[in-house]
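A.,

Following up on our hallway conversation. C-alpha cells first:
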C-alpha cells in the first residue's frame, strides 16, 4: 500500500509541476521563416550577423523593403556606406537602441550586439540580398526569399504521358 501511494505521489508531483499553458505565437513563427544569419570565424575571432525581413508582417504602405540586422561583436561595426540591397546603395540605415520598440518584432534579440534598421525601395525580385563590409574587413552577405521557404511546395511526383 505504501509503495502504491509513493508511486502515486511521484506521478502527481510530476504532472503537477509541468507547465500546461502553451502559447502559440504565429507572428514569431512567421518571422522565423524570414530570418537568416551570416557567420565568419577567422583566427579565433567570430563575427555573427542575424537579419529579419519584416515586410511579411508589417505590410508597409510605402512598399519599402524593411530589415532588422543584428551584428556581433559590437567592436566590429558595420560600415554604413557599404550597405547594399540587391546591389543598390540607395538605402536608409538607422542604428537602434536595445530598447527600441521595433526590436519586439524579431525572434532573436542579441543584447550584446549592434542593431540596425535597413529600409530600401521596393525590389521587383524573388530574392533580396543584403551586402556590407565591417571595420575589420568582413564582407557579409545575407540572402532572403520574399516568399518564405515554408510557402513553397514542390512535389516529388513524376507524371508519365500515355
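Then the amino acids I'd put at each of the 162 positions:
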Amino acid at each position: 500500500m505504501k509503495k502504491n501511494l509513493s508511486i502515486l505521489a511521484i506521478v502527481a508531483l510530476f504532472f503537477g509541476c509541468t507547465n500546461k499553458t502553451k502559447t502559440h505565437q504565429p507572428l514569431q513563427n512567421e518571422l522565423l521563416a524570414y530570418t537568416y544569419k551570416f557567420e565568419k570565424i577567422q583566427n579565433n575571432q567570430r563575427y555573427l550577423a542575424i537579419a529579419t525581413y519584416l515586410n511579411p508582417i508589417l505590410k508597409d504602405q510605402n512598399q519599402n523593403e524593411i530589415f532588422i540586422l543584428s551584428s556581433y561583436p559590437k567592436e566590429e561595426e558595420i560600415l554604413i556606406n557599404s550597405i547594399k540591397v540587391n546591389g543598390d546603395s540607395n538605402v536608409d540605415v538607422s542604428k537602434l537602441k536595445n530598447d527600441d520598440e521595433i526590436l519586439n518584432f524579431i525572434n532573436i534579440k542579441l543584447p550584446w550586439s549592434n542593431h540596425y534598421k535597413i529600409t530600401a525601395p521596393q525590389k521587383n525580385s524573388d530574392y533580396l540580398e543584403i551586402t556590407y563590409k565591417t571595420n575589420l574587413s568582413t564582407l557579409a552577405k545575407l540572402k532572403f526569399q520574399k516568399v518564405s521557404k515554408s510557402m513553397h511546395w514542390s512535389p516529388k511526383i513524376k507524371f508519365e504521358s500515355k
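The longest strand covers residues 45-53. Curious whether your intuition agrees with the design.

B.
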